[in-house]
Amino acid sequence: MIKFFRQIRKKLLSENRFIKYLIYAIGEIVLVVIGILIALSINNYNERQKNQAKEQLILKQLRSEYTRNLRQLNEKILMRNQGLVACNILLDQIDNPQSFNVNEFYKSVWQIMRDPTFDPIENDIIGSEKLRLIQNQKLVELLSNWSSEVFQVQELELQYQKYRTETIVPCITRLGVLRNVNHALWKDGYTPTEALDKKYNYKFSIEPTQKKLDLDKVINDVELEGIVSMVITFNQMTNMQSQSLRERIKKMIEIIENEIDKE
Q: Known Pfam families for this protein (predicted)?
């Protein structure tokens, strides 16, 4: 082909047909430019196809991760709600000693000693080249804000961890009911809310204490009453933040599903 064009140029020049040669040369340049543009267009198309394929893989990975994050967050919200129910039972028994139920009391004490913490799956999307492959800007915004929003929940959880370690456990230990609390927990079987395999009902034999306990003195303990009220506040505040985070996750999953459906 190149040889063919070269022969045409030589013929035009030998015949001293400069204008026709000029027109021909311009035409040849136009053809070259068109060829380059077509090549670039094909290359860009192939690159877009590759990027779209990579984006789909990233979106499917995110869908899996945030679906698991949502499942875990729902679990933590449930645990705190169970703690709130336990707190109401304890306050009712403190305020109405005549309705005192020993087994319910011990199981409720266990609930306020639990420590639900949200530990989401961390990905390497933010701050990496992968983020630029995501076309949906709303999703990019949600992903970019994710870490700071998780931190707001975890900050409250850390405060509760500190309060639990420094105040709740020492108080329950001082009241002398820990052995009985664990006896009540396991005697009829127990499946932790956060258990990886929830089909099992675990039973252990922990005999109650042989020492004499003054449960009237226990339920009239002013520190215990204050602790129960603080547990309510901690759980309510953390669940308020968790519910907001939950809506963010649901929105992300919705956007991701729509973007995957475009495939």
A: DUF6090
